[in-house]
Amino acid sequence: MTRKKLLLSIASVITFILIIATNSFAWKAIKPVMGPGGKVASWEETTIPDDRVPIGVNELKDAVGVFGYPKEEYGLKVTPEEAGIDTSDAGKLKRAYAYLKVMPGDELPDSGPWNGRCYMQFQCSMLGMEQFSLTSKEPVRLKDYAGDFQFDLIDKEGRVRTRKVYQFRKAYYGEGGMRYKNMVYFFEPPDLKGMSILVWKPVDEKVPDDNWIYLPALRRVRRIAAAQKMDAFGGTDMTNDQIDRATGMWDAKITGEATLDVEKPPLKGCYGTEPHRNRMQGKHCVIVEMIPRNKDWPVGKEVVYFDKKGANWYYEETYDKGGKLIKVLQPFMEHMYPKNPVYWTYGDWYAHDLRTDHKTMMYLPEIDKAGYKVLDYSPDKRDWSNYVFWFDTGYPDDYLSQQFMMTGTR
Amino acid sequence: MGKKKGWMIVFLCFIFMLPFMVSNSGWALIVVKEIPGLELGGYIRNQTDIRVYSPRDIMRCDTNAAFRADYKPTPFLQFYLELRPFIDTAYDLSGSLSKENRGVMGISHDDYSWHASPPHAISPYFGTDTEVGGWVRQHDVLSTNVNTSYWRKMSLLREAWFLWKTGPWQIKIGKQIVTWGETDGLKLMDMINATDYRHFIIDDMEDSKIPEFMANITYYFNQNWNLQFLWIPWYVENFQAPAGSAWALNGVNLIYFYDHFDALNLQNGVGLPPGTPYYIRHMIAKNACTIDYGEPDNENEFAARLKGALGSHTEFTLNYFYTHQKNNVFIRTYWRENPWLQGGATDVFQFYTKPQVQRIYGFTFNHVFGNFLNLMRDLVMRGEFAYYYKTEFFGTYHPFDYTSEIGPAFLGLSPGGDLFITKRDLLRACIGWDKNVYWMGLNWLVSLQTFYERIIGYPYSQKGRPSYISNVGLTKAYQDEITWTFYFNTDIMNERIKFDNLFVWNQMQEDGWNRFKVGFDISNHWSLWIGNNFFWGNDKSSEINPFVGNALWNGYNPAYGTGPLNPDATRIGNIRRGDPLGEMSRNTSFFMELKYMF
């Protein structure tokens, strides 16, 4: 066969496949119908188009999306009991974390209220989507999560640069020596499109995370060192550690308690307080001070405000080695997934670097990749009814592999 | 193209990009709603290099674009198409700008012409076509030396492939790029795609690779283990910078020189007995400059790679690549009958470019140390070993007397030495270390690599005389060569400003290259990089020049005049011999890259 004939044949095959492949597929999703008392009364089944489904999830024909609550307040009203939290008994948490291999001295208490390390470990679980109920008789565990995020990088002049990513997090609860795996896949801006970062978090805290990065410009998956935990994630004002906590690298202890008041310092006027006003106001918190064990790290300590009863995480301060406050963070982890109140969901995060007056807003995008308006973080809106969550889709382990890092890119 | 027209193109490109410069709204990536799964994107970019030692010389003013169509009709199927048109106006400018190194032997661009068209082409006497490049097959390296149109055609269709996933199989067929190996900057095992040396080694890794048509099939045993097969049906050579261009290698320039000017001189009677008839001069010229453009006997290439992991912190690959040598700029002397010269013989320089079969065996690994010898935390070690079985080298041995060796008396002594081709095994290895360091309140990525190369069975003598192997700079390549690279990068202002430095030093040649650049992330769409390429090393070696013939052509007889070759020259026209990096010291430059992404 001559080259021309071969090329012609290939072109024909491609054309044929193109023609037959243009049929789009409608995906199943369910919508909560709210009843009295802010509870879900029933579910309405609907379909959503292809372009609303994250990369990877669109390989799973059985995946079902779940729309969020029509109003944010429904999610905010989920109680610690409903969410399966019990901060009065550290023993329950220790038993849930039986698979963890911690360093001597880092063991969780056998009983009594949570200490600083309990809160920090739980924070790590929230971030890694290693989520479970401490109170239910039957084990309730989140299997996997897929979704998209947006990061707005806002300089002091107000100029905005944006990054958009897909994120896959899958918890293993000790299976295969793994705590969870996390993949972040950039699809915008175009300069970063195709870049992905993969983290495998082992249960053994003495063992560093496995980290890989795929750069389309190199066309190569490259292993990177865990020390980049202190590097800013994607140019944001958050470190990699703040979105993927290395619990073995910190000492943590409770240094006090406080009731949050958005009209008083440190929250008053703080970047992110306004949109979070309703969820934070009046919450009674424990203050956990975290000091890095790696003296090479460029921070002196982090101070984190956790809901004493609900273990939620509202406010975080970062100090430099000289004790000067350099960054503040207001995360959003709530229960906006109507199908299961145990699951924590991301929302709008606000980080502010006080040294440079640079700000970051990290959030589930208000406008998705296909251009649909799905969220509105205005203080008077905060409607989650058009946002589709993808939990427990059952995607395979391959999604958290080097092969998948290159998927969908060149 | 005249100077005005060249600048006009630059101006039009600027005007085209201006609306995007003032706009920072909307999303760059274009999602075509009518066709689900189709995304369009790309960039428009200008890369300009200005020579430090001659600021009026614009070495590069390359406006290029990438238009990408990425179509995923189903999650298991992907089609990718990328077009890369370009225009490097440095080659189209004339006059005082970009003059210095746009020609061979100091002849400016306007005079030598990309297409080797008359008056420099050898006349097609007797109906033969001796024009430079006339015998060159389309994808031969040398065609690029005289004609950029081929490169335009080739790069326009940058990539075109489809990918199909089914079960544990992943099949990717089409024109594509495949990356192997663990090293940065220099390639050992990363040899699947040919390399574009139009700008020597200063281009980014992706830009430096020439996509090739291939079938790429991977079988995934599990997340950590997979086996990859590649079949490349058509051979593609490395792409050399065109002769006379800023980044042309000496070998390329010399080929052009001999092919073109030497033949021209002979045709014009230079160095030949006075009164030699034109038709004889022509035939001498044609014979003297015969180029043996070879084709591989079988163009098929194959590769296989097994990738696996040992524990969670160590990954490795075993590699095999059956390919052809991709650098074929070799030169050799050749003695043969020539009825048009006295005595029926002549000293013929022949340029041998037939690609030789190359077998490469490789091993790569990476490992993460959580705590390295209790000295250092979080250290990444990378390693790569490549064994090139029977690589063809170009060698030189010391002068000898043609009279007693092979030829008629009038050939006399060759003061420049003689040339030979030899096959030797080549071992190349690299160990690299990556570490993140906090310093000055910034996070620095620091990377150190040591490259070691050994030519197995180095030919220290040839025909009883001392000899050596030549490197690309045409000076002596040592049996053992050690090269160090040191790289760091950091950023400030939330990655708005990035600093990046690559230092390369060849310990044996004592030459090097340092590239420092600063990047500005202007907006979601715009980025700007500025920087400096600094080369140092020997650019006028004292090694014996293998390319010089007799100063006095034809048996020391002044009556015959001097030949085109000067045995004492350290440079021929603008062609200098030097160390591989040292020969580029003329190209120390400032550069700028402005990019709009959409």
Give a structural overview.
The complex is a heterodimer of chains A (410) and B (598). Chain A has 410 residues and is an alpha+beta fold. Chain A contains 7 helices and 19 strands. Chain A has a single domain (66-405), classed as Lipoprotein localisation LolA/LolB/LppX (outer membrane lipoprotein receptor (LolB), chain A), CATH 2.50.20.10. Chain A is globular. The mean pLDDT of chain A is 90. Chain B is mostly beta strands and 598 residues long. In chain B, helix 6 (250-267) runs antiparallel to helix 7. Chain B is globular, with a radius of gyration of 26 Å. Chains A and B meet through helix 1 and strand 9 of A and strand 2, strand 3, strand 4, strand 7 and strand 18 of B.
Intertermini distance of chain B: 30 Å
CATH class of chain A: Mainly Beta
Radius of gyration of chain A, Cα only, in angstroms?
A: 22 Å
| CATH fold label of chain B | Porin
What is the annotated CATH architecture of chain A?
Answer: Clam
Number of domains of chain A: 1
**Number of DSSP strands of chain B?**
33
Described by strand count, sense and barrel closure, the largest sheet of chain A is: 17 strands, mixed
CATH class of chain B: Mainly Beta
CATH superfamily assignment of chain B? Answer: Porin
Please report the two chains with the greatest interface, counting residues with C-beta closer than 8 angstroms to the partner's C-beta.
A-B, 70 and 75 residues
